[in-house]
Design goal:
The chain has helices at about 10-25, 30, 45-50, 55-60, 75, 85-100, 130-145, 170-175, 180-190, 205-220, 245-255, 280, 290-310, 350-360; strands at about 40-45, 65-70, 100-110, 155-160, 195-200, 230, 235, 260-270, 315-320. By secondary structure, it is α/β, with parallel strands linked by helices. Strands 1-2-3-4-5-6-8-9 form an 8-stranded parallel beta barrel, surrounded by 5 helices. Helix 7 runs parallel beside helix 9 (about 180-190) and helix 13 (about 290-310) runs parallel beside helix 14. It is globular and about 60 Å long. The two termini are about 40 Å apart. It binds (3S,4R)-3-hydroxy-2-oxopiperidin-4-yl beta-D-xylopyranoside. (3S,4R)-3-hydroxy-2-oxopiperidin-4-yl beta-D-xylopyranoside binds near residues 69, 158, 233, 264 and 329.
Length: about 350
Amino acid sequence: MNRLPGSGVCVAIAVAAVVSVAAGQDVALKDLMPAGTVIGVAINQRQSDGTDAASVDLITKQFNQISPENLLKFESVHPAADRYVFEAQDRYVQFGADRKMQVIGHNLIWHQQTPAWVFQGADGKPADRETLLTRMRDHIHTVVGRYKGRIHGWDVVNEAVDEDGALRKAPWHEGIGDDYVAKAFEFAHEADPDAELYYNDYNLEKAAKRAGVIRLVKDLQARGLRIDGIGNQGHWQLATPTTAEIEQALTELHGTGLKVMYSELDINMLPPAGRNADPAVANPYAGGLPDEQQQALAKRYADIFGVFMAHHDWISRVTFWGLTDANSWLNRGRANYPLLWDRQRQPKPAFQAVVDVLRRTH
Ligand code: XIL
């Protein structure tokens, strides 16, 4: 470095400032959120184990909440009737505790990522109501009980409602009946009376499904059960749902008196995966995201956070479903770009767009 007498420090500071502005990492989302709303990310096992050290640094810097992308799902934590697995799960919870983050549990009861043995009875027949209730209670008591006082809130039931608003024809429902959701909330509350309990689902910007979810949570409330919040997953596209639909859904969900959280936010940049589709159509951004799309994504995130910040008193949490585009579940063999950081862990224009909206909220 050229050193003019007395100017070395200033040059060094100037260089550092340019580097950090270029990296865009001098600012942390968690420092810009309004009081009462946390911001988080779903982390994978390489992150909670600490193997992916660079991602750990970014998560630690940017977020004050974590969700487990897969580790606390039934098949991960309870793969066989007589076997629970807790090693990596304990590390996930400790990861959050070490950093004073809000630690979420996802999820207890779902029709996916649940082993087949759960639903099997004797003689290859489907398990009956009493068997399923016993298994549900054992699972919830064991998992929620282990992390009592350490997991802030649980997605107790995930995706129980169909697009038409009726209860989904899932094995838990078929085997137990309509009150299976209530039973899950009852067992979770027994296992940790201080934990927050949530119902979590997607497509809540669609009126019929939203109405079904609101009916369901009102039924839980009418039964006198503890329920603290509704998780709106927020797996959205560039153009849909519209911000008007997002705002309408938020207003109605808030109308239940519950906390609203955006629990799995990402923006799918790809068309629906079709069979035998021309690769140029099915995987259009294999070579990179064109600038126009990059800017469209930034605007989309700005618009979404504009709605969130206009009603931030109603929103207790915003969680991205993955840290960088490399981590996203939406790739599935294609190149997707749904998140705020790119595959090199560099902030995208969408990151800056969110920062700008959050700064205007102060
Ligand atoms: C996804 C994970 O991201 C993937 O790694 C896994 O293979 C499938 O599940 N709704 C949910 C999440 O509630 O648990 C899902 O996570 C995404 C959709």
